[in-house]
Amino acid sequence: MKYKNSDIVRKPGTVPRPGEGKRGPQGHLGYLVRQASVAVRAAMEKVLADLDITPPQFAVLTMIVAYPGVSGADLARLTFLTPQTINVIVRNLEKAGAIRKAADAEHGRILRLTATAKGQALLKRCRARVKAVDDRLAALVGRDEEKVVRRWLSAVGEALSK
Fold first, then answer.
1. Contact status, residue 97 vs residue 119, Cβ threshold 8 Å
2. CATH number at residue 118
3. Which residue among 23, 63, 133, 155 is least crowded, i.e. fewest CB within 10 A of its CB?
């Protein structure tokens, strides 16, 4: 007889592996989303490590390329990072030559961020690595299921942000 991970019985006091017990299908939905998020981040850290970029830096660079001229405050909202963390990341990306800052034409205190050619090249290399993680995620479900998962995750973000 073949057992599923969720059928395994553990000794009291031992922690189940992901996919087992409350870390499996019978777990709380919010916990499972968090568990998945942590697993994705760890996989991203692994594939990005030799490029000297962290998943938060990748997210920030992605949003700067997607929304040229974005402000630090907007980046914080887009990437779910604190303004303080954004400041550190922006400083490091600027020091690496990946982005540049320019004062807003109307509101001089607001800094607008854009990616440099070096930053765009770095993002391209990062995306190739992160695509491998995305492909592993997509391989867990079929194409139609992936569309449902994407819609559900988007709807969760929208509904719980109200």
1. yes
2. 1.10.10.10
3. 155
